[in-house]
Design brief:
Number of helices of chain A: 13
Largest sheet of chain A: 9 strands, mixed
CATH class of the largest domain in chain A: Alpha Beta
CATH topology of the largest domain in chain A: Rossmann fold
CATH architecture of the largest domain in chain A: 3-Layer(aba) Sandwich
Oligomer: homodimer
Shape of chain A: elongated
Chain lengths: 300, 300
């Protein structure tokens, strides 16, 4: 079997380690990035450099994109010297960015007209998951395309789930963010609530984490907050961006999400207050501000 | 070692199986209930009947109460022929009801003046946990009192955590309800969101439940909702009652809990709409109503 030739565009905090894992798994890799410096170590490790997204697309079997938001994906795909210019029948386009489901569907339709099969494949698991190759990958698109590129995806993540047709991966990621944001806000509220009511938040968390409230958030985040650590992890600014995708999609599809709406406002507040670079669990800072008291980290 | 003599007041959906487990574990048990019929099978199994809460208190080493809300506990403790009338030095009072932390502290102070050690010990785990003796028990009070009654508590639950002084068990339970309510609302929103956006909610849940969104709620509830099952479990009316405890305590202690506030309103809506006897996961009915569409249970 001939090795699948892979291309990677977007070598940021997530994309860089994901591309590195593809290279490590032995797939020939061609990369392009808006900031070329970020590709240097990959090139030294054997990756090829292309002069544009179009040039990457023209020379590979599968092309991955991993950029920030909907306009960035649209630009790198349909902009000058973008993926569409290098499109060829048989190419598979895999977008790891988290964007609006409706945008992923538009891309699938427009690239589909050029003979390109598209998979929207947003991920969950953070930079740690990206480095360790243990990401959860939520896929929307055709099963046949997924099966062709699955060996490459397997270098990036350990759980790869086909959710449905185009856009379904984005819908799953948006749904994921509804739950994650709710847990982060609830964790923040319950810790400040417990402290203000006169209990030790760490003992409260220890008492409840094994019961109906059990979640990954309570398993991992309170001990970091109690140690005074609010560094990402997953940035609050990205949580705010992803919740905006939820709210825009909810509006487009006529769904009311009152719980998510208030969570989105609290993450918007973090960004407004200059705390967008902190971890999403640092939304506790907004609850602290609203409540006029700080989490006691002396025990942490 | 002489067997601890136990008394039980409040033989409802939770209290009855908990009392039955104490009896099965071999502790001499005296019971009283507002509705005597509910004690019949316990009496046939060897429990003694007392004519009042005071009479129970007078004849036992440890007395358990398990009633609905703060006024009910106050009545059974300080009302006519209540626990306080039968109080004696050395008695330990264990309240399994979920009430306001400030009320538990008042009880501990007033019964303490009569020589009674008090433990607030609300539980989590539902009627299934009560029947199986696998409840999570969150305890506030003196460690010495807890150690004396721990053998009896061990017949009711498998995780027994001393959170802190009087009221701390209630604080932990309230904190637990902050997280549980947030997860129930988020689960409801993400399932209707996913369906409206064009994805299969069951596949979306399958794609995200192993990642950062992981929680007991997503592990257990979606499959029940997708099968059209909205029976409790844990009643929405009790979720609404417990969130009211959170909001009252937050107001008393000057904490802002905006996420919990909106969740509380959605559970209030369930009660207002006559759906309070359904499971707390049935809050999805409010999201369905607000969104003009129902979860498709044809696949369930």
């Amino acid at each position: 079997m001939q090795m699948i030739k892979a291309g990677y565009i977007g070598l940021g905090k997530m994309g860089h380690p994901m591309a590195a894992n593809i290279l490590k798994a032995g797939f020939p890799l061609t990369v392009w990035n808006r900031t070329p410096e970020k590709a240097q170590d990959l090139i030294q490790a054997g990756a090829a450099w292309a002069e544009s997204a179009a040039e990457v697309a023209a020379s590979v079997d599968v092309i991955f994109t991993n950029v920030s938001d909907t306009p960035d994906v649209m630009e790198v795909v349909f902009g000058l010297h973008g993926v569409a210019e290098g499109a060829h029948p048989g190419l598979i386009f895999v977008d790891h960015s988290t964007i609006k489901p409706s945008a992923s569907r538009e891309i699938a339709r427009r690239l589909g007209d050029l003979g390109v099969a598209c998979l929207d494949a947003p991920v969950s698991g953070g930079d740690i998951g990206a480095i360790n190759g243990t990401l959860t990958i939520m896929v929307g698109g055709e099963e046949s395309a997924l099966e062709q590129v699955r060996p490459v995806l397997a270098a990036e993540g350990k759980t790869i789930t086909l959710v449905g047709g185009p856009g379904s991966g984005q819908i799953a990621k948006a749904a994921n963010q509804i739950m994650v944001a709710a847990q982060m806000v609830a964790e923040a509220e319950l810790m400040i609530f417990a402290q203000a009511a006169g209990a030790d938040p760490s003992r409260v968390v220890a008492a409840i984490r094994g019961g109906a409230a059990q979640c990954w958030t309570l398993d991992v985040k309170p001990q970091r907050l109690l140690a005074g650590n609010r560094q990402p992890g997953f940035k609050a600014s990205l949580q705010a961006k992803d919740l905006n995708i939820v709210l825009e999609t909810a509006r487009e599809t006529h769904v009311a999400v009152p719980g998510t709406a208030i969570a989105a406002q609290l993450f918007n507040a973090m960004v407004a207050l200059g705390a967008g670079e902190l971890d999403n669990s640092a939304v506790i800072g907004v609850i602290e501000m609203l409540s006029g008291q700080s989490l006691d980290t002396a025990q942490g």
